[in-house]
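Archive entry: two folds, one per protein. Generate the first.
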Amino acid sequence: MNNKFYKFILGIQIIVVFLISTLSVYAQDLKKITLVDAINLALSNNLDLQSDRISVELAKNDIKISNRLQNPEVNIFYNYGAAGRGNPQQIGASQTFELAKRAPRKHLAQANLIKKDLNVREREFELEMDVRETYVDLVAAKTILNCLLEQEKLLEEFLYLSKKRLDAKEVLETDVIQAQIALNQIATQINTAQTAVKTARNDFNKVLNIKQGDNVLYDAYENELPGETVFISLKTPDYNKTMPDFESFSKRALEKRLDVRIAKQDIEVARKNLTVVSRQRIPDVEVFGGYGYQAKNHSDTGEFRAGAYAGANLYNIPVLYTFKPEIKNAQLQIQQAQMNYESAENKALKEMSSAYDQFLNSRTNLIFYKQRLIKDSEKLIETSKRNYMEGKSDLTSLVVMEQSYKEIVVGYINALADYYTDWIDFLRTVDSEDFDIFSENI
């Protein structure tokens, strides 16, 4: 009695947990969007990207700051009492002029603006690729779930056939039990696949990173991965074509790398900085002038006298300190930037070559699944089902065939997803969303 009671309580707990997990999903409204809409949504509303774009506006303001003029000074000199006798009272202004400094500062700021703009473009591209990859992962997870649901229907058919043959006394009850076990087993796999879909959907929304209400969750428009090479606005190369050697397009691919272009821009920034630092040796000039007068009571002649004054000063003459350490550091920064540029090129070629090799491997696997495994396994499962109905084989063989078929279909889906995601990874290394490996234009 206690045993039955405990089983009843355990069953209630399982049902409650299932209902809570189910309601937690539907508490959020799922909004299906295409990949193109998802990319546009992310580029317009992604919080991290909006923050990065502010750096470009800051760099634009830095140009105005670097080109600023020094503000003038107004000064008054007034003598009181006997101290003023014979000395003029003065009202004037002074202005400091920087010599050969403003233009280099402005050029440095402009070079930094170009670098900031390249950084934002690189971030935009990375975000677009992240959206593509998480979108493909989400559709792939949904495809696997649909595949398992179809296999569940197939096992339900096996269970029905085994019960039918049991009623006809053609098989033993063990066939029904075995079919039921296989059906229960795939139910756990479906639960795992449902969790994988939820995880992939959350990863997709995490990449979008859009400020919105808590009740909105974006979902991929497609429910299954198609077998075509053009999918979700992703122009993947036709796997039936012979792929070119990496060397045939490596130079063209390298020219598109934003990180290489950024490293090259760092050299320009370092050179501009050397000019700015070197110009510190040039003194600045202060020019001043104004109006001076003597009142009657302060004038030696007892008459009101008036006139003007003018002068100039040289500031920051490089005698005691000649800025040698700053200039040396600026020269070392140029050498460092050049080495970083060479390193970026070397690493880029290795990354692109590795990503391309991985894509070729995914292509090989996909072709193998398409041309052999899928077609052969479909024929095999149909033959096994027919043999079981005709009494030529037992249910064990049929279940084994079903499990093999399921593994092959899931493997094919994963191979297809890898084909898409590995191409996306290659596009990452090329920093181009529409790179054509078959093009001969260099």
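Generate the second and append.
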Amino acid sequence: MKNFSLKKCFSVAKVEFVKWVCDARMIVIAVMIVFIYNFAVTPLLENAEAMNKPLNVFEPFIAVANSSILMLIIPLVFLTLIADFPRIDTNTVFYIIRVGRVNWLVGQVIKLVMMAVSFLAAVFIGSIAPMVGKGTFSGSWSEVTTQYLIYFPDKVGNFGHTLIPENLYNQMSLTTAAAESYLLAFAYILILGMILLSFSLIKQKTMGFVLCGTLISVGTAFCSVRANLMWTMPMANSIIWIHYTRYFSEPLMPMWFSVTYLLVMLAALLIFSGVAIHKFNYDNVAEISV
């Protein structure tokens, strides 16, 4: 590709990523982690204390990534943190001209990947940090997760127990659940960021926000009623336990479908952005600034 420079791409990504990390809005992550601790980690710890058994350190994160409530909140927080992505103003226009359209676009995609990885890393660390010194690092599910109702048969509706349902621990190993939870959540929020980037390049950023909000809210609604239409939304395809029944090994929806769905969406948005950057004009850049 003519004038393409990977060095310039990473330079663009690095400069803008540092600015993003230093933004005052990062305080929202701390607030979110406090909420995650109270909503998901505390109930699991209370069950572990009641059984006098340790949790696996990765189980709180798995619970977080498979909670419909938290998978509504986490994408919304991410959208809040990347509200000005990509930043395009008069000064940015000169920047684009200097580094080249394609280099700038690839730099924005790299920056988005860095933001998504670091954001989910914060969620991951915030979920497992309270387990240090209290949990085990084995590759198997804890007794707290798998045998709670054996110890307390009268507590069928216990909230902490429902955070990691049978659909997970009866169907896959803990390490598989943790890895797939992270990767699918990563693909979900990456799609949201790519939507903002794509619509910004056609000067319809507000419409991009509306579409992201619609995908999140409609996806949550479909998942809550288990409508078949939920598989048309990124949310259902990013939550593992929804794919399975509690006991039978035959999945309700094959995992390969969800992986393909998410990858196709990302590929389509990348292609759209690639076409849009070549047609992008520098007139009225204020139309796409937030």
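Annotation attached to the second fold: The CA atoms of residues 44 and 201 lie 44 Å apart. The longest helix spans residues 101-128.
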